[in-house]
């Protein structure tokens, strides 16, 4: 879903850049209050893993492929959408700067879609759904995070005059409804993995262990 | 940094590097959802406004060699880890040393 250069007119790119920079400011503020020696190592390795897995495009029908984004994973594990904004912004900046994945002019829009929308949808979807059980809630939240990010992307493409609105929504929605299943499965697997290896790093709301109310 | 955290970083990095090494061989070369939509909607390909040093996760001159992709992804994975570690450590809460909180 990395938008390349040339798909969005520059003046619209500027608007997404401004939104992204404001969100990045909030995410740094969140980091200054919530990151410490205990959770920084986990955030660092998850970011590295997200970068690597974003290069692993999995084939889906219609001659298309897709990869995980990871925003819901970060938002759920760090109990904040701002954590996802921070991690995805860093990943997207480095992908654009070093690997030309996603245009530099479109970087703001890519942060808006995958970081901000992905993170907020993942976080609030999990918050609303966690009553149905943590595994299905994680899956659906992760699925919704990439699906809605894709719909936002197609609306931006339509505002840019690059995609017609309805067809864009249908194609992007269809492809990412499938890619969302990949997102959901991997997000569940990673959370279960951390639950096994370092349960102390999972917050109470997604941990299998009954924790006493600590905070 | 205590042993548990060091093990977490080493273990997590190994998993990420395994993915990075496999990706150039296993990843589908089909266009992604956005590229596919653009093709279906007959949007012309666009020019990048900026030339990245390792475009498309490949080393210039060895685009057809998957080992170039492996190297590029290993570099990227380590750089991402170090940048997040660095940014988070600089921005994050200071160690409890009596001066804050």
From TrEMBL, chain A:
Membrane spanning stretches: 6-28, 40-62, 68-94, 106-126, 138-157, 169-194
Gene3D superfamilies, sorted: 1.10.1760.20
Protein name: Cobalamin biosynthesis protein CbiM
Gene that encodes the chain: cbiM
The species this protein was found in: Methanobacterium subterraneum
Alphabetized InterPro entries for the sequence: CbiM/NikMN
Taxonomy, superkingdom: Archaea
Primary location class: membrane
Localization terms from the record: Cell membrane
Biological process annotations from GO: transition metal ion transport
Keyword Cell membrane in record: yes
Record lineage: Archaea, Methanobacteriati, Methanobacteriota, Methanomada group, Methanobacteria
Keywords (A to Z) from UniProt: Cell membrane, Membrane, Transmembrane, Transmembrane helix, Transport
Keyword Cell membrane in record: yes
Membrane topology designation: Multi-pass membrane protein
TrEMBL record, chain B:
Keyword list, A-Z: Cell membrane, Membrane, Transmembrane, Transmembrane helix
Membrane spanning residue stretches: 7-27, 70-91
Main subcellular location: membrane
InterPro entries, alphabetized: PDGLE_dom
GO cellular component, one term: plasma membrane
Source superkingdom: Archaea
Locations listed in the record: Cell membrane
The UniProt record lists the keyword Mitochondrion: no
Positions of the PDGLE domain: 6-91
Name of protein: Cobalamin biosynthesis protein CbiN
Organism: Methanobacterium subterraneum
């Amino acid at each position: 879903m990395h938008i390349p250069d040339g798909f969005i007119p520059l003046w619209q790119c500027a608007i997404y850049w401004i939104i992204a920079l404001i969100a990045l400011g909030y995410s740094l503020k969140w980091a200054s209050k919530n990151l410490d020696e205990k959770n920084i190592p986990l955030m660092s390795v998850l970011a590295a893993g997200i970068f690597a897995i974003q290069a692993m495009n999995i084939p889906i029908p219609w001659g298309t492929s897709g990869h995980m984004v990871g925003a819901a994973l970060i938002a759920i594990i760090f109990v904040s959408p701002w954590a996802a904004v921070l991690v995805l912004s860093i990943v997207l900046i480095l992908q654009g700067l070093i690997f030309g994945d996603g245009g530099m002019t479109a970087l703001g829009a890519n942060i808006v879609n995958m970081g901000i929308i992905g993170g907020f949808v993942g976080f609030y979807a999990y918050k609303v759904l966690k009553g149905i059980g943590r595994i299905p809630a994680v899956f659906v939240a992760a699925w919704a995070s990439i699906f809605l990010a894709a719909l936002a992307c197609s609306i931006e493409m339509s505002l840019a005059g690059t995609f017609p609105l309805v067809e864009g929504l249908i194609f992007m929605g269809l492809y990412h409804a499938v890619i969302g299943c990949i997102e959901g499965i991997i997000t569940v697997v990673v959370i279960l993995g951390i639950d096994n290896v370092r349960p102390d790093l999972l917050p109470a709301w997604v941990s299998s262990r009954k924790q006493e109310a600590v905070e | 940094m205590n042993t548990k955290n060091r093990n977490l970083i080493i273990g997590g990095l190994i998993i990420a590097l395994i993915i990075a090494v496999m990706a150039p061989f296993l990843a589908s070369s089909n266009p992604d959802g956005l590229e596919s939509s653009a093709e279906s909607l007959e949007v012309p390909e666009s020019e990048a406004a900026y030339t990245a040093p390792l475009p498309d996760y490949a080393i210039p001159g060895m685009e057809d060699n998957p080992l170039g992709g492996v190297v590029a992804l290993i570099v990227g994975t380590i750089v991402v880890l170090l940048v997040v570690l660095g940014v988070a450590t600089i921005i994050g809460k200071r160690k409890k040393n009596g001066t804050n909180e």
